[in-house]
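[job 4471] stage=fold_predict status=RUNNING
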Amino acid sequence: MEPVQEDLDLSAVPHGTYGNIEILVSIPGVGFIIGSSILAETGDVSQFDNPKQLVSWAGLSPAVYESAGKTAHGHITKRGSKYLRTMLIEAAQSIAGGKPNRLKHFFSRIQSRKGYKKAIGALDRNVLSIIHHLLANHEKYAESPGKEKKPNCPISAPIA
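[job 4471] inference complete, writing C-alpha cells
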C-alpha cells in the first residue's frame, strides 16, 4: 500500500491563526495542542482591554468577599471555561516540572510561601496574562534576547 498524503484544507481557518499558535507555542510549557486549545477557547484577545479582564473571564481570579469594611479573598471563581482552566493548569504543571526559566522561578517563589496548588494557580494566571500580552502585541515569548524556544508545530506559517 502507498501512504496517503492529504492536503489540509486551510480555507476554514481564520487568517492569522497559525501565527497565533506559533506565538503560544513559544511559551515554555505550552505545546501545539495546549496552544490551539487555549486559542480556541479565548478567541480574539482584542475583546479584552487588559489581562485582568481575560483572567477574570477565564474564572481564574480570586473571589473577593467584603463586609463591614473587611475584605477576604477566597478561591478562584471558576466562572469561565473549565477546559481553558484545565489547559492552563496543564501548562503550569509542565512549567513547574520543566527546565529552569523565569516562570519556573516565579512558581518556586510562590510555592515556598503558599504551597504547590496555590503556586500552580498563580502561575496559570501569570501565563494567561502573558498570553494576552503576546497575542495583543503579536510577539513571541523570549526569556532573553536571542534565546527563543523552537516551535514544534505540525503546520508552520510566518507571523504576519
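[job 4471] summary: The CA atoms of residues 122 and 129 lie 11 Å apart.
[job 4471] exit 0
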